[in-house]
Specification:
With 417 residues, the chain is of the alpha/beta class. Helix content is 30%, strand content 27%. α4 runs parallel beside α5, α7 packs parallel to α9 and α10 runs parallel beside α11. The protein is elongated, with a radius of gyration of 21 Å. 51% of the residues are buried. Cell wall formation. Adds enolpyruvyl to UDP-N-acetylglucosamine.
């Protein structure tokens, strides 16, 4: 079992380069099978989810070749195959194969997704969308069968604002007959990124990034070249790390506009922020003010930065309240931070955080961002070594983590027990 080891108390200093966005990459790779000729993706992150998706594409007779951070996907000979188990269970975003396979082959037989299950994560809105497009959907003991003789455009109102359902419907509707409208669509930058790729492949999508997306189906899609947007969650995590360690870090290769919610909250606490064209400098201060944070859908504060922010708020003077309006119960990092000396109580969908020092301890990451929160805890600890297990979750979202942190002056290493 691999462990991440951290001796805390060192301010991070220097520059960190942010990778391409995981939550774009995991949708863009399945999207490529909608094309009849090769798709090239640039700025891909080297993450476990990306590796698993490429293996799944291999199962669908789609070749994938890496050249540095560039990937060439050749779906020319792609074939529909049932994917009931195995790799699809290893990540959440395997659900994008539903929309992509439905669009390309008119069918998908696929196991329910896995990944970070910090609480039940239903896909009823995805299914509702496929059904509205004319597909028949059945659930055979956790294996979803989706079939359509012909996909027909439809008006779809999402009951909840869902990133996954919005993208999945865009994927399938790109190849439906006629017009599809998604109302109450999610507005995350990753949705615009996927729509940009699909449009470069020949789709006709308008309104991505707003709550109404209109898609005119096309009968054929082709290859193209696309560069993935920077990972705003990875960037936000490094911003929080810089602040928590009272460091001074340039977080490079970001789109500052995507970082507005976290930037505003860090400034409110008293963190120094300097915005540049494609970078943000984060300057730590000796003291921070307690604040309240509400995690919401974009452009609100990202739920994926809620756990990292919890760790930072242990460093603020007074009581902070962090409420997650996207997930009811995404607080698996809290008991682990408490082991490190944090004073946090979970009340309903809020964490109430009293400022207090953290100390090194043996802790366990039970999901990706809980893991990030523990890394921040470890970097901030005033004494002792922090030993984090569950490293495979952290590897889902942070490529080159140890190298990046060491370059910034942290004492961090991996160990096999
Ligand atoms: C691969 C990917 O991009 N993952 C992100 C995506 O996950 P994901 O796309 O799974 O998250 P959603 O946006 O769909 O979920 C938002 C909320 O809607 C609920 N819901 C969702 C779908 C559905 O059919 N029914 C339903 O009730 C969920 O339980 C949740 O409470 O957006 C989340 C919210 O920003 C992020 O935390 C994840 O990092
Ligand atoms: C929850 C996350 O990812 P996924 O939806 O892929 O599990 C995340 O990135 O924090």
């Amino acid at each position: 079992m691999e462990k991440l080891m951290i001796t805390g108390g060192r301010p991070l200093r220097g520059t960190v380069q942010i990778s391409g966005a995981k939550n774009s990459a995991v949708a863009l790779i399945p999207a490529a099978i909608l094309a009849e000729t090769p798709v090239t993706l640039d700025n891909l992150p080297k993450l476990s989810d990306v590796g698993i998706l490429t293996e799944i594409l291999g199962e669908l007779e789609t070749s994938v070749n890496w050249f540095g951070d560039k990937m060439v996907i050749d779906p020319t000979k792609a074939k529909s195959k049932p994917l009931p188990n195995g790799n699809v269970k290893k990540l959440r975003a395997s659900y994008y194969l539903m929309g992509a396979m439905l669009g390309r082959f008119g069918e998908a037989v696929i196991g329910l997704p896995g990944g970070c299950n910090f609480e039940p994560r239903p896909i009823d809105q995805h299914i509702k969308g496929f059904e509205a497009l004319g597909a028949e959907v059945t659930n055979d003991h956790g294996c979803i069968h989706i079939r359509a003789k012909e996909l027909q455009g439809a008006k779809i109102y999402l009951d909840v604002v869902s990133v996954g359902a919005t993208i999945n419907i865009m994927l399938a509707a790109s190849r439906a007959k006629g017009f599809t409208t998604i109302e109450n669509a999610a507005k995350e930058p990753e949705i615009i990124d996927v729509a940009t790729l699909l449009n470069s492949m020949g789709a006709k999508i308008k309104g991505a990034g707003t709550e109404t997306i209109r898609i005119e189906g096309v009968s054929e899609m082709h290859g193209c070249r696309h560069s993935i947007i920077p990972d705003r969650i990875q960037a936000g995590t490094y911003m929080v790390m810089a602040a928590a360690t009272r460091g001074d870090v340039i977080v490079d290769n970001v789109i500052p506009k995507h970082m507005e919610a976290i930037t505003a909250k860090l400034e409110e606490m008293g963190v120094g922020i300097v915005e540049m064209d494609e970078a943000i400098r984060v300057i730590g201060r000796p003291e921070y003010t307690a604040i309240d944070v509400k995690a919401l859908v974009y452009p609100g504060f990202a739920t994926d930065l809620q756990s990292p922010m919890t760790s930072l708020l242990t460093q603020a003077k007074g009581t902070s309240i962090l409420t997650d309006y996207v997930y009811n119960n995404r607080f698996k990092h809290v008991p682990e931070l408490v082991r490190m000396g944090a004073k946090i109580k979970v009340e309903g969908r809020s964490a109430v955080i009293e400022g207090s020092p953290l100390y090194g301890a043996k802790v366990k990451a039970s999901d990706l961002r809980a893991g990030a929160a523990l890394v921040i805890g470890g970097l901030t600890a005033v004494s002792g070594v922090t030993e984090i297990t569950g490293v495979e979750y952290i590897d889902r979202g942070y490529d080159y983590l140890v190298d990046n942190l060491r370059n910034l002056g942290a004492e961090v290493w991996r160990e096999d027990s």
